[in-house]
Amino acid sequence: MNIFRLSGDLLHLASIFILIARLQQTKSCVGISLKTQCLYLLVFATRYLDLFLGFVSVYNTLMKIFFLASSGYIVYLMYSPLKASYDKSLDSFRIEYIIASAAVVALAFPHKYSVVEVLWSFSIYLESVAIIPQLFQMTRTGEADNITSHYVFALGGYRALYILNWLYRYYTEDNYVDYISWIAGIIQTVLYGDFFYIYFTRVLKGKSFKLPV
Questions:
Q1: Is the pTM of this model over 0.70?
Q2: In Å, how far are 45, 91, 127, 160, 195 from 37, measured between CA atoms?
Q3: Cα–Cα distance, 1 to 165 (Å, whole number)
Q4: How does pLDDT run along the chain (213 residues), one tens digit per residue?
């Protein structure tokens, strides 16, 4: 494992810890897209079926279990204890189009034609666009609290670090090719473009996250 992969994983972990801490401390899920969290839960549920098919390493297994469990916990918090603070009218992006599109692309361009590999490909394609409901909600409100901004930044930053990981592996490993992850990862990172700009020009300077009018 190289430093870019490890840094990406740690930033991904940080994003989840930031979100859970925010939900527990504020006792509110205002500004958080439940639809994005449901999509992430679906991503991990379809990607980590190999937990039951083989063993790679302790690190790999623990990370997969953590992402599945933490995603399920976040969805539970938003569906039950914090449901009263959830504003469905703002979280209005039609995720069925995202799910259907990812399924079609996975069937057309899977890693391999087997149930597990098609579902893995589906999870990669779905993750690339799972943040869209969250970004759409932030666009509708025009702002976000700083903790939510840090959470979204950590999610985007983790994927950007994975691109560096892929570049490193391409130049240091023989016959390393993963077009599905590469294309999906680039799309995912590009989606964060406007957010990154506002984050660096406002939030990191101590200002609140607000979209330009």
A1: yes
A2: 12, 11, 11, 20, 18
A3: 9
A4: 899 999 999 999 999 999 999 999 999 999 999 999 999 999 999 999 988 887 888 999 999 999 999 999 999 999 999 999 999 999 999 999 999 999 999 999 999 999 999 999 999 999 999 999 999 999 999 889 989 999 999 999 999 999 999 999 999 999 999 999 999 999 999 999 999 999 999 998 888 888 875
Q: Which residue has the tokens 């939510």?
A: 148
Nearest to 37 by CA among 142, 180, 115, 148: 148
Half-sphere exposure of 180 (CA within 13 A, CB side): 20
The token duo for 116 is 């597990």
Q: How far apart are the C-alpha atoms of 113 and 21, rounded to whole Å?
A: 40
Question: Which of 98, 201, 73 is CA-nearest to residue 149?
Answer: 201
CA angle 86, 87, 91 (to 5 degrees): 110
Tokens of 43: 């991503």
